[in-house]
Design goal:
mainly alpha; single chain; 65 residues
């Protein structure tokens, strides 16, 4: 299998597995979590879903020096 296909499938499977867990956490109101903890959970999910793929494939051209 080509490396690009493996990476693409890995990202898709990772997102597909993470989405139901995140959906459950963000849609169910919990009395044992404060607003600060919910914001921290959202920041962690944002880092995993948005920022981590940017580390693998940045949308800007690489710096040349």
């Amino acid at each position: 299998m080509p490396l690009g296909l493996v990476l693409t499938l890995g990202l898709l499977i990772g997102a597909a597995m993470s989405y139901p867990m995140a959906l459950r956490l963000f849609t169910v109101g919990r009395t044992d979590m404060t607003g600060w903890q919910s914001a921290l959970l959202f920041a962690a999910a944002w880092r995993m879903v948005v920022l981590r793929p940017l580390y693998l494939y940045p949308p800007w051209p690489p710096a040349t020096g």
